[in-house]
Design a protein that fits this description.
There is one protein chain. This protein has 561 residues and is mostly helical. The chain contains 24 helices and two strands. Helix 4 runs antiparallel to helix 7, helix 4 packs antiparallel against helix 9 and helix 20 packs parallel to helix 23. It is globular, with a radius of gyration of 28 Å. Keywords: Membrane, Transmembrane, Transmembrane helix.
């Protein structure tokens, strides 16, 4: 029967068997099994050692210390240990099992997301360097099948370690009093998060082959940084930040653990972590959608599904054609619209004008960063633009107008497409600024957001111009230049101690102009808008000049006069 299943799996997805054959050796299986079993034993012995063995204090004891008890440094945190009539220590066994369940859950999240991300990026990067990825591209299998094989095959030993720990984890959850349905829901969220992060890892590996061996370290370090700090925030049990940053917390599967802790009916003073308040305080467009367990988990799964679908489209585009842009122009419009609409919902978590203003500052940064990502995902290679520029005068003869080719075509420059993306963000967010109860901050918020979007257009035009350069490191040059334009002004302001209140006009030409709009006058705002569009016009003129030069045929270049 097992042989039949393997044969069917080989026929359905040969890539899985290709990955398994090199990894599921007896030696590797033995090492993975020992790591998992020994790790579980150490966890059990560690928590067993925390149980009381004599008179004193313990987290798992049940009684309050007597008034005449000697001073203990943890007296306010730990309970006093007493024995029942049979001489057994009276402990809260559910709390003990809950601590084990939580530790295993957090450890599993770190292992699956961080280690799995590293393995996938390292594997794809290695195949790219060895040249074997080009042979895989020539196979008749679709990209979806190949990358499903990668996701299920590359981290197979990591999956084995986690599967061997599954009975211990499940048993600890049930003994802690967590319903089986909630444990299974947590597993579903964990699987969805793995799908998202693994697709993000593969997209990152396909998009940045020029990073070479630095790829897996950068990708896994980024995931580690995010998971570490978001887990600390979740474990703290405090209320949410009430900012758009709360959306980022939804990408950590530990966000659903407070639901599980609450289901044990243990007192919050006894548990002291994973408080439910951060979930109950979370609002989207003013609605407390996460107070219901079913609704909350469904929204988290929907969030993962939407983002994973977008990453899947990137993988399918880039795998068979390494020179293709990561996303098409119509896809970028949908992505910008979805991103703006979703992130905007987390702005309205409070009605205080100052907090709403701060949230619009954050969302302007979010949209700006996402716009830069869209910029580099949309910009085609120089050779592609050169071919388009050479034959763009034939667009009308093929039934496709030049305007349509620039807006929707995949080979045309990205400048106009970025302008449309910025316009989409403005159309979605600017009306919300005027509707929101910002009071005295309303005009400053609107002006700051418009200035920020204009700066994105300036960055996009500069990046497109640099991508037309004749150097071989065009992408690196463009990314480095934009990074310098973003970071260098803030470094200068920090050294020279230039505050937004002192020189708001200078801040209007940075990545964060909204920080200075509260202190600016209308003439300075108008001057900044005029200067930005003047710069856009000059850079656009230079881009058009460069396109005309690239589009000139070799024959025309040789004709004198």
């Amino acid at each position: 029967m097992i042989v039949t299943i393997i044969d069917r799996l080989t026929e359905t997805n040969p890539q899985i068997m290709r990955e398994w054959q090199g990894r599921l050796t007896p030696k590797n299986i033995s090492i993975a099994s020992v790591i998992s079993l020994v790790g579980q034993l150490l966890v059990y012995l560690y928590y067993q050692n925390l149980l009381p063995v004599g008179r004193g204090f313990s987290r798992y004891c049940t009684a309050n210390p007597p008034n005449n008890n000697d001073y203990h440094p943890y007296r306010g945190l730990l309970k006093y240990c007493i024995q029942d009539l049979n001489g057994e220590w009276m402990i809260i066994s559910r709390l003990w099992w809950l601590d084990i369940f939580t530790f295993l859950s957090i450890s599993g999240i770190f292992a699956l997301l961080v280690v799995g991300t590293y393995q996938l990026i390292a594997d794809l990067s290695g195949e790219e360097r060895r040249g074997t990825l080009n042979f895989i591209r020539l196979s008749p299998q679709p990209a979806k099948t190949i990358f499903i094989g990668k996701i299920f095959g590359v981290p197979i030993l990591l999956y084995l370690v986690c599967l061997l720990a599954l009975p211990f984890h499940l048993g600890a959850g049930l003994l802690a009093g967590i319903p089986l349905s909630l444990i299974l829901a947590f597993y579903g969220v964990l699987i969805a998060s793995c799908a998202f992060f693994y697709h993000a890892a593969l997209s990152f590996a396909l998009a940045t082959p020029w990073l070479g061996g630095f790829q897996p370290w950068l990708g896994s370090a980024t995931v580690l940084f995010f998971v570490f700090y978001s887990t600390i925030f979740t474990l703290s049990g405090y209320g949410g930040s009430r900012t758009p940053f709360d959306w980022l917390i939804l990408f950590n599967p530990s966000f659903v653990l407070p639901y599980l802790v609450k289901s044990t009916f243990l007192p919050p003073d006894a548990v002291r972590y994973l408080g439910i308040s951060q979930i109950f305080d979370l609002r989207w467009y003013g609605q407390s959608l996460w107070q219901s367990v079913i609704m909350g988990i469904s929204l988290i799964l929907l969030n993962f599904a939407l983002c994973t679908y977008g990453l899947t489209r990137i993988i399918q585009r880039r795998f068979h054609n390494p020179l293709a842009t990561l996303v098409s122009k119509p896809q970028s419009y949908w992505m910008m619209g979805c991103f703006s609409a979703i992130s905007l919902g987390f702005v309205f978590q409070t009605l205080q004008p100052s907090y709403i203003f701060d949230n619009f500052v954050i969302i302007s940064v979010f949209v700006a960063i996402f716009g830069l990502l869209i910029l580099f995902a949309l910009t085609p290679p120089r050779q592609t633009i050169q071919d388009w520029a050479r034959y763009r005068h034939l667009q009308g003869k093929t039934g496709i107008s030049l305007g349509k080719a620039v807006i929707f075509g995949e080979k045309s420059p990205s400048t106009l497409a970025m302008a449309i993306n910025v316009a989409i963000a403005i159309l979605l967010i600017l009306p919300a600024i005027f509707i929101a109860p910002l009071h005295q901050y309303k005009l400053a918020t609107a002006a700051g957001f418009l200035l920020a979007m204009n700066m994105i257009l300036v960055y996009a035009a500069i990046a497109q111009l640099l991508m037309l350069a004749s150097t071989n490191k065009r992408a690196l040059l463009a990314a480095t230049s934009i990074g310098i334009l973003i970071i260098f002004p803030f470094l200068c302001f920090a050294v020279l101690r230039v505050n937004p209140s002192q020189s708001p006009l200078l801040w209007f030409f940075t990545f964060l102009p909204i920080a200075a709009t509260k202190y600016a006058t209308f003439p300075s705002f108008a001057l900044a808008i005029f200067s930005q569009w003047l710069g856009l016009t000059l850079v656009g003129w230079q881009i058009n000049r460069q396109l005309n030069r690239l589009g000139a045929s070799a024959t025309k270049a040789l004709i004198p006069g």
